Amino acid sequence: MLILDEAQVYRYLTYEALIPAVEQALIRFSNGGITQPVRTILPVPQHHGVFGLMPAIDGDLMGIKLVTFYHDNTSLPTHQAVIQLFRASTGEPLATLDGRLITEMRTAAASAIAARLFTAEKPQTLAILGSGVQARAHLQALRLLRDLREVRVWSRTPSHAHAFARETGAISLPIEEAVRGADIVIGVANVSEPLIFGKYLSERAFVVAIAAVGAAKRELDDEAMQANIIVESCEAALRESGDIIDSGAPIYAELGEILAGKISPPPQDHRVVYKGLGIAAEDLAAARLVYEAAIA
């Protein structure tokens, strides 16, 4: 059985390969080709953490991601994970992969796929709310698919926003100024209460909201949720998204349904919100890429 650490995952995983792999996984998931339950979450209250289990079966491969989120971590990443792969026909364990980088990259890949679907092929103004790992990953993935004429960044910690700006060529701005007039708004700051307000958003803005996962957490207010809502999994969104549960906003479609041509994209004259929660099908697609490259 192979054991692949993060350095090996980094060696074998690229956005150029990952983006089309995640796209096909989303299509197969929405078409019923991937078997996957909604993740199981086990709280670890004594350490202010959570432990998640995310299994999936895709053809000849089975996998499960064991993921932790410890908000108070400072010297360690807040998200850490291990992915175990099995041969579906025999149940044979094939590989254990570090899952932190896979989680980072597959999340950004799915968001970039959505941005390609729901934004015009013209230079875009991007606002990123947050300045950590996911902010950098999303910018890297999005730059592969869209021409960005201006990148704005906001962070609760101004020094972090300034550092991000120096590193990436972005402009550090107050949150309202960052969001106003932006074509694409990406929320990646860890939140439990709304941070993205509809009164600041353009009517035609495309919003990527991945920062609040959980039935009790919000990152968009009700006005921001007056939009065409796109998700990876309707079942997961109706159980894991406080934004959807509390606002009562109807789901327009799964991302895979639109990618497959089963449902037409929503009109571009109205705001689109991609509420990304992350699903095991994406992790399995990424892990497959790494595993197959490692044994080639």
**What gross morphology would you assign?**
globular
Summarize the helix and strand pattern as letters: EHHEEEEEEHEHEHEHEEEHHEHEH
Number of helices: 10
Strand content: 25-35%
Written overview of the protein:
The chain is built from 10 helices and 15 strands. It is α/β, with parallel strands linked by helices and 296 residues long. The strands form 2 sheets. An 8-stranded parallel β-sheet has the order 10-9-8-11-12-15-13-14. Strands 1, 2, 3, 4, 5, 6 and 7 form a 7-stranded mixed β-sheet that branches. Strand 5 and strand 6 form a beta hairpin. The longest helix is centred in the middle third of the chain and has 19 residues. The chain is globular and about 55 Å long.
In short:
This protein folds into two domains: 117 residues, ornithine cyclodeaminase, domain 1 (2-Layer Sandwich), CATH 3.30.1780.10; 172 residues, Rossmann fold (3-Layer(aba) Sandwich). β4 and β5 form a beta hairpin. It has ten helices and 15 strands.
Characteristic key phrases:
296 residues, alpha/beta, ornithine cyclodeaminase, domain 1, Rossmann fold, eight-stranded parallel sheet, seven-stranded mixed sheet
Strands, helices and their partners?
Layout: E1 2-4, H1 6-12, H2 15-30, E2 34-35, E3 40-44, E4 49-58, E5 61-70, E6 79-87, E7 93-98, H3 100-118, E8 124-129, H4 133-145, E9 148-154, H5 158-168, E10 171-172, H6 175-179, E11 184-187, E12 206-209, E13 228-231, H7 234-240, H8 242-247, E14 251-254, H9 255-259, E15 272-275, H10 280-295
Parallel strand pairs: 1-7, 8-9, 8-11, 9-10, 11-12, 12-15, 13-14, 13-15
Antiparallel strand pairs: 2-4, 3-4, 4-5, 5-6, 6-7
Helix pairs in contact: 2-3, 2-10, 3-4, 3-10
